[in-house]
Amino acid sequence: MKYATLGELMLRLSTPGNQVYVQATSFDVNYGGGEANVAVSLANYGCDACFLSKIPTNDIGQSAVNSLRQYGVDTSRILRGGDRLGIYFLQTGASMRASKVIYDRAHSAIAEAKPEEFDFDELLEGVEWLHISGITPALSANAAEVTKLALMKAKEKGITTSFDLNFRSKLWTKEQAQACMVPLMKYVDYAIGNEEDAQNCLGFHLEGDVTSGKLDVEKYEAMLKALCKQYGFKGAATSLRESKSASWNGWAGALVKDGQFYLSKHYEINPIVDRVGGGDSFSAGLIYGLTHYEDPSDAINFAVAASALKQTIPGDYNHVGLKEVEVLMGGDASGRVQR
Amino acid sequence: MKYATLGELMLRLSTPGNQVYVQATSFDVNYGGGEANVAVSLANYGCDACFLSKIPTNDIGQSAVNSLRQYGVDTSRILRGGDRLGIYFLQTGASMRASKVIYDRAHSAIAEAKPEEFDFDELLEGVEWLHISGITPALSANAAEVTKLALMKAKEKGITTSFDLNFRSKLWTKEQAQACMVPLMKYVDYAIGNEEDAQNCLGFHLEGDVTSGKLDVEKYEAMLKALCKQYGFKGAATSLRESKSASWNGWAGALVKDGQFYLSKHYEINPIVDRVGGGDSFSAGLIYGLTHYEDPSDAINFAVAASALKQTIPGDYNHVGLKEVEVLMGGDASGRVQR
Amino acid sequence: MKYATLGELMLRLSTPGNQVYVQATSFDVNYGGGEANVAVSLANYGCDACFLSKIPTNDIGQSAVNSLRQYGVDTSRILRGGDRLGIYFLQTGASMRASKVIYDRAHSAIAEAKPEEFDFDELLEGVEWLHISGITPALSANAAEVTKLALMKAKEKGITTSFDLNFRSKLWTKEQAQACMVPLMKYVDYAIGNEEDAQNCLGFHLEGDVTSGKLDVEKYEAMLKALCKQYGFKGAATSLRESKSASWNGWAGALVKDGQFYLSKHYEINPIVDRVGGGDSFSAGLIYGLTHYEDPSDAINFAVAASALKQTIPGDYNHVGLKEVEVLMGGDASGRVQR
Amino acid sequence: MKYATLGELMLRLSTPGNQVYVQATSFDVNYGGGEANVAVSLANYGCDACFLSKIPTNDIGQSAVNSLRQYGVDTSRILRGGDRLGIYFLQTGASMRASKVIYDRAHSAIAEAKPEEFDFDELLEGVEWLHISGITPALSANAAEVTKLALMKAKEKGITTSFDLNFRSKLWTKEQAQACMVPLMKYVDYAIGNEEDAQNCLGFHLEGDVTSGKLDVEKYEAMLKALCKQYGFKGAATSLRESKSASWNGWAGALVKDGQFYLSKHYEINPIVDRVGGGDSFSAGLIYGLTHYEDPSDAINFAVAASALKQTIPGDYNHVGLKEVEVLMGGDASGRVQR
Amino acid sequence: MKYATLGELMLRLSTPGNQVYVQATSFDVNYGGGEANVAVSLANYGCDACFLSKIPTNDIGQSAVNSLRQYGVDTSRILRGGDRLGIYFLQTGASMRASKVIYDRAHSAIAEAKPEEFDFDELLEGVEWLHISGITPALSANAAEVTKLALMKAKEKGITTSFDLNFRSKLWTKEQAQACMVPLMKYVDYAIGNEEDAQNCLGFHLEGDVTSGKLDVEKYEAMLKALCKQYGFKGAATSLRESKSASWNGWAGALVKDGQFYLSKHYEINPIVDRVGGGDSFSAGLIYGLTHYEDPSDAINFAVAASALKQTIPGDYNHVGLKEVEVLMGGDASGRVQR
Amino acid sequence: MKYATLGELMLRLSTPGNQVYVQATSFDVNYGGGEANVAVSLANYGCDACFLSKIPTNDIGQSAVNSLRQYGVDTSRILRGGDRLGIYFLQTGASMRASKVIYDRAHSAIAEAKPEEFDFDELLEGVEWLHISGITPALSANAAEVTKLALMKAKEKGITTSFDLNFRSKLWTKEQAQACMVPLMKYVDYAIGNEEDAQNCLGFHLEGDVTSGKLDVEKYEAMLKALCKQYGFKGAATSLRESKSASWNGWAGALVKDGQFYLSKHYEINPIVDRVGGGDSFSAGLIYGLTHYEDPSDAINFAVAASALKQTIPGDYNHVGLKEVEVLMGGDASGRVQR
Q1: Residue B125 belongs to domain with CATH number
Q2: Which chain E residues are closer than 8 Å to F274 by Cβ?
């Protein structure tokens, strides 16, 4: 089974250790981006995963492509060209000090690519699952059009689609997001998003203070069921993050599939090593789970275990393999040395 | 408003990560010292902060001066000369293993500077707030005399003064400290110090086991009020640290101003990244708070939030800005990524 | 008093920080191995500790020997030669992600050394305590024979012996382990091992789920007393680890000596910096304690405090000295900065 | 005497050691840009140097400003705002492998700043020397206008001006360069540029193969004199680089002042540590020399010695001080340890 | 055109900078091996290159595979399994101090693989060029058999073959080498090797002192022509290295093809960054050249330029691309910054 | 044969790579000092070498002692105590930029040690060769007295003595040096020193410009013979350094023994990695050579080859072994990889 994801891959420049920006005399180099992160996760589980994007031909762009190849992602369908690779800077938080992201992604190759450059008939050849996040259409009007073309073609070809709502306030307003994304939902089979995403991207609302560190499971069940009902999704899922501090989060997930609600196991991630990419590893885990387990409960548990493990690894990409996720799903969170 | 601080700036050499001294093949280089740390904090909040000291002309001394300029401190009034910059070594602890400081600060330029080298009429020109800690008079008899001259001149010029008691047993005995410091208190407007400092530097006593990790707020209120009464301070403040381990501390602060007691919010700092300089960032936060907020409660809450954040950043200096402190004061300790 | 330990010293290659293997572009270099770790600990407490092994003459072997000399271990009785130094790779875990060891130790100099190369009359000259772990006989048939010869000669010379059962499933099966180790027990004065070791190496069984993170003290008392009874040990001890996660363990220890049961203080190690070598530092602490304190309760408390501290330091070796262990034994786990 | 320079300050991201881009897992962080480099050099010689530009308010922009403050440059006249700080990537060459720069500087704050944001009456208050390079007008039409306004105002105020032609083919064509720069020459007192710059920026031509590693001094004398004659420059200078390899260059300089030709001493720079910023340190040295030495021969020798030393130091900035330059000017290139 | 190479891929552990082994507290991690290096070079030139080997399934083996994928090598035909990945340690020399390699490659997966595991009908499917070096048959009797099977099948399928003689005295004696390799020569189209290789592997002899740093071109012409004549090679080539020091080598190459002798340009590599893999990059360049240029003179010049550039880059792999090689072939060795 | 050396061991803090002081955010940690360096060299050649000094008991002092133990030096006779370990900072030069040392060694334990603390009867028990440099008496009046006592006792015990004149202008004037050192010469068997040392320490003079990079061998022969004659030395030697740049030196040595003059081979050290400690490795090589070779020509050639190799290794200590020195003595300076 061939999976494809479509989006932006960025150069990530992060301060080493606990340094803040003004102290840094070097930046750690990683590459990442929502949909690329999903593709790497899938490849790490042994899946045939293909990333679709446009990436410059210079050495920075090539290094980004190489990072995908290194982990087994099919990069043969990536368009090459454009002026620059988008960049984001990351200063990782600790305790009550939050992580701080600075985006420098405007004018990137994918943001400035034209819809006609993408021949989705070819690009989606043989693909059975297409995943996109809400970041992609937010990049530019062109990128929004590209997103739409991809989803339409996917439906035409009978490809299953998943969409991670993922609202980014630095890229657009919620009014812009809703105007773009609501019409796309009819091409989507599985939606992923938390309460803020649902509210900002689709106009849904969920009561409660998301900075309080406490969660109300019942509201999520209601939200997910309502989403499925309104948009005809086959399923909808959300990760459930309790933000106790930058170093300690509770972590779980919930899935509604075919009208049934499934709540995952709950983990305490302490310490968090790198929470960036946590949501993407959840999406990847869910996609893997939905296509490899019969029981939707296993799918959501796989997604949550995989994404909990991701947050103990530096970088956007999730480097855990099947076996490690399954050991954690199976209940062993003891962290005993594997010799 | 121009702030000045007077003291020693040292080269700090710390082992990387969790290494202990005997493992180190490199040392991380930082510069720090009680009053210099206060000046950097104030500059980071946008204040006009000036540091007073004597620093060698060699490249190590110049690097120390540069570190202050980098963060916007006015270094134009620093005397240059002397044989060496004081050094301290730091091995950062973890869990039940305490951090370990080795001082190599004897014979430093500031310790050997002569009182007549300091023309405080010029050095304090335009200054409205002067801050010194109890480390400065402890450096040498000369430094004690310099401290006294600075405080006297400040009073003469109508400059507000703050004094962080800060007892250092490696530098002098409590008898020596009291003989020197008690007479200085009449020049002080705001005193800062915990129970040990008050006891060692001024002869005050507070019951209880400071290594127990528990605090008794009422005793602190009594102590601060008694200090104000005895010495005629406009205010007195203390940070309240619960030392649960080298990696996890409770953190709060208390202030008595104009006879009123103010207790701050309480934070759990877990993990602590670097607690050295925590007290200095508290002093700086208090000075900023007292000169920018009407409500003393805001002042102590600013001081505590600022100094909690400091302890999540490596190095002596506190690199957080106004906005970050205010977000934490405002109640968001969730550590959610700022994008 | 001269102590000797006999075993394998390996090159340890670990990923920096929280990186996983596939991310590593450098490995941190340390040297370690069960019995070598014990020798270093003893040397750090000021004891005359001698390490017995066979190590190649190449620069990697020499670096391993140098690492022992650096910390004061007597390396003059190490045989030199053989093809290679054993290697192990380490990826340190975090939170629910376990540490992952990859062994590449087959065909090492010590594994391929022949029994006749070891003249234990000379090698044990002047030695009063000999320590070996169950890893040594597991290395090869030759190494098992060497272990037996050493223990027999020790008994002949009236040397006290301690044996850390330490089962390694990658090296042999429990059937093989029992066939080899049970007959050795008659030469052993002090046995060290947890429930899994006792079960795998000697056929003992203890109920309960060792991955649950909870401990049942009474069972350990029963086990240790039964071990002493069956094999005539002067004493038997075990560390008690509660594996809450890769970053947080409970830690304690228990000792039966002369029929009496002693339970140590209990510590929360959070965060764990490096748990590899934790058991060896427990053994070393116990040996030190048994030979320096009258009260067996002090011996087990020393062992547990020492090994708790070890787990806050990177590398196999325990770099804490007597004073630091005694401060923790004395009850100060506050982690306050030592200035 | 107050010096000002006007231009772009960029984040420089360079691969460590001899790594090429595709190998890098971290980038060394420096800040640099032609005119900023000149300002830092002047500040390091003890001059009052002021940098004029527009720099974003985010932490990356602040770090750039801090880097100037660290070395004593007056940053108080820098405009703050805009979307991004320009970036350039650097892979340092070795032997016959050339260094490779990738620019990602489009849309930077200074490139997008509007002329009306710059009040040069204020910005040049008290300034006696203004330096700009040909990179600044090449950034954008707006930047070209800003350059012109600055030069015109300088002339109006009687400020001496220097202009480093510095053609950058990635930023504009030689036709564009000439259209812009030729009219600016009437405001320029001292021009700096090699044969390629003169050809591309002003339409001058010099025979010979610049990649041959050999220089023809006579042609340079002719060129410099012709430049002075045609544009009425008080002086014109060029560095003379013999590119033998990426690691080894010959280095000298020539100056025509008041009709006289001065040729500097010649150095072999081997190895070159970092040649980026070499030309800027030449300009800074020349400016310093022209304003501090009577003899123009000393000025060009200072410029050449200073810039030779720069190329032995990593980063764009030249960290050598007056004394080191003067020792080299004085003839000691022996590199004997200074104890 | 599909190229395949067959051999061992090792973990390379090198001391950072100029450190010697006994100083190292970390090792730089690279992966390399003669034929793998050739495959990476070819992939970097845009060729379809496939590597054949057996590599363990553990994370160290996976990292080795990933390093090939990162640079675009087809790894889909690699057998997975076996006990360990071979290791080599490298301490890079400087000036008169030679680099020092320690091999720890015995018992590797490829050395212990059985001939019947390799189905060369499948493994060579679609391949048009097969390259092997003399290291592969030297690994073990099994590996020698595998080498023979590969070459025989290649001839059967009409695949062009190249063979880099590459004698390794640590792996076998020259008698063993000759017994194995002479019979293989009948399957070889292009042989690569210097005078020592020809002597040790095939019994050829060339007068002169190879440590003298001087070369005698005429002898090489004679040797290459004689080799072609005796074994019926289509061509034979050698790199010509003048070992002036560990930091400075002369570098050239010579080729005999169809009876004609071609001598390349000559380069001075100074400094050498990393000469390991230099010969492999020569082989790869020659293969590329022979399959892409009409004129054999271009082929040898491409090989020499490519391998000169390699020696300025750390690691076994050659990361230069077509354009950089062609610029150097074209005569520009000036090392001027490419902006 | 037991060798002893007496002197100061310092903490060396050097900037990484080519950084200058003001750029450094970390310092590389090494330990070194003239006589300690000699002891390490001798231990690396397999000799029984003992270091005599006074070193603090703190962790910095312990790390210094550990560094000696690591390389096999006998540290059992080192006095422990005092306030601080001396420090020196090092910024390594390149090309025409000289290395720059900043000393911070005043008030060190050895400088402040009292003569009566040293019982040379015990400290020199079993010693057959004693080596001291002119740095030791320069440290303080006490240290000068200690030096004298050691030399007198050595003569009394029939111990051969060598003395490296080693003038340090930062520690004393040449008048002070001569007043102290001339009277010591009667206890010295072998003197080592270049023309500047002879001039400053003993009042000898040699014509010529030592910064010119050229040497006049005849003058050295005359100087060495005159030294022997005047002071009755058994031998006198000097290294011959041609300082072409900080990166490239010529290197040779000369010895007069029993009236005969021996000139060594000559080497070009290019690049120099770290020339600090070069002279000490020459002394150590000479001592080794004089006690292991019959022919004085071999002794001086060993000294020069050893010290040439030292300058290719970072740190004060010379880590080369016998075999590497002998290969270079034997004429192979080709730097070919040792596999």
Answers
A1: 3.40.1190.20
A2: 18
